[in-house]
Each structure stands twice: as C-alpha cells, then as structure tokens.
Amino acid sequence: MSEAEGLLLTEIGVKKRYGDGAENISPQWPDGSKNNNIDSMTVRDGNVLEWNESKGGNAGQNKRLHNNEYVEQGTPRYRESLLESMENKRRNLINNEMFVDPNIDKAIGMLRSGDVKFNVYSKGVYDAVGNLVSLEHRVYDVN
What is the percentage of the chain residues whose pLDDT exceeds 70? Predict the structure, then answer.
C-alpha cells in the first residue's frame, strides 16, 4: 500500500502543480528492478521539469550507500551517487545488448544537467470517507 499510495500522491501533486499539460513518467529498467532508478519525473512538451520521489504512509527520506558513506535523498551527493549508479547500470545493459527505455536516458540527462529540483510527495491526509484532503510536498535543490 505504501508504494501505491506514494505514486498516487505524486500523480495528484503533479496534476495540481501543472494541470493537464504535464505527464508523470516512471522510467523502467528492462529487468524490472527498481534500484538505481528514480520514482518518476514530470515532463511537459518533451522537457523534464522535475524529479519526483513518491512516499506513502509516513516514510521518511531514504539513504543509499555510496563509496562507503551514506548519502541522503534530497542532497547533491545523493543525485551524484544515483547518476553514477544509473550510468553504470545502463552501460552494463548496453554491453549485454539489452534494450534500455528511452526514459532512462531522459532521466540520466536530467540528473546530469545540474538543473533539477528533487520533489517529495508524501503524507496524504484523508477525510472520514477516504477522500484526499491534503498532501505534503517538499522541494530540495540537489545541484
């Protein structure tokens, strides 16, 4: 439920911010794995607008191990670590002649550009009948 709720909160948050003109895209690795990937990115007219992390329930910021040190989501070092991991994974897939989703390349380009905001959509609050009343949206400068 937590992952599904987080993805739904992100969809709602992106729609509130950008209306119908933007699309929330989740790049996919061909092996179906979710590690070394972003949750989603908001794209309008082919341009990446933001990098989104979806958090369900009361999940907090995650960390990842990079060069024997933990780096926290929403920081420049996390972006650099994720970019390095994604580039390495992509290279290995290409070397093994596997198809790579063009959205993976788009995500790598976004992370590489140095002009990206890290958005976290989380903590949905619901009324007594289950309607979403509010959600939390935080933005981090990861450049």
Answer: 95
Q: What is the per-residue pLDDT across 8-24, written as a single tens digit (0 to 9) for each?
A: 889 999 998 998 889 88
Domain ranges, residue 92: 2-141
Q: How many domains does the chain have?
A: 1
C-alpha to C-alpha distance for 114 and 128, rounded to whole angstroms? 43
Strand order in the sheet with 132-141: 23-25, 40-44, 47-54, 117-126, 132-141
Of residues 53, 121, 26, the one with CA closest to residue 62: 53
| Cα separation, 107 vs 120, whole angstroms | 16
- What is each CA distance from 86 to 23, 59, 80, 107, in whole angstroms? 22, 23, 10, 9
Which pTM does this prediction carry? 0.85
